[in-house]
Every structure is written in C-alpha cells, then in structure tokens.
Amino acid sequence: MISIDTNIIIRFLTQDDLEQYKIAFSIFNSNDIFISDTVILETEWVLRYAYEFSPLDICNALGTN
User: Fold this and answer.
1) What is the reported pLDDT for 65?
2) How far apart are CA 65 and CA 25, in angstroms?
C-alpha cells in the first residue's frame, strides 16, 4: 500500500496537466492506496479556493454523494 498526497489527487480530479494526470491515473489503478484525513481536507481546500469548485462539485469529485 502506498500513501498519496494532495497533488496526486488534484491532478487526477482536475486533469489540468495531461502527463501528470496519466501518472496519477496509473497510481490509482495499479496500487492499493492510503489517503490520510489531512490530505482529504487539503484536497477540498485546493478544489474550493484554487479551482473554484462548488460544494456540490467537490462532493461529486470526492465521491461523497
């Protein structure tokens, strides 16, 4: 199992950089992963403030709906 950081999740969810998205996608598909609570909270913050996701979009992105 590997632990992933906020950057990997953000690249996966936003697909704002194709090469980094491909790497993030492969990490999610080929490993058992661990995401800490702190990383989830930081991901929510980045999506809300840097990418201006709405609360509903954040819930959908994180699979909480």
Assistant:
1) 60
2) 21
Per-domain residue ranges of the chain: 2-61
Chain segment 46-59, per-residue pLDDT in tens: 999 999 999 999 99
Q: Which long-range contacts does 31-35 make (Cβ < 8 Å, 24+ apart)?
A: 31/1, 31/2, 32/1, 32/2, 33/1, 33/2, 33/3, 33/4, 34/1, 34/2, 34/3, 34/4, 35/3, 35/4, 35/9
- Give the residue ranges of DSSP H helices in 1-65: 6-14, 18-30, 37-49, 55-61
What pLDDT is attached to residue 7? 96
Q: Give the CA distances from residue 39 to residues 3, 17, in Å, rounded to whole numbers and listed in that order.
A: 10, 20
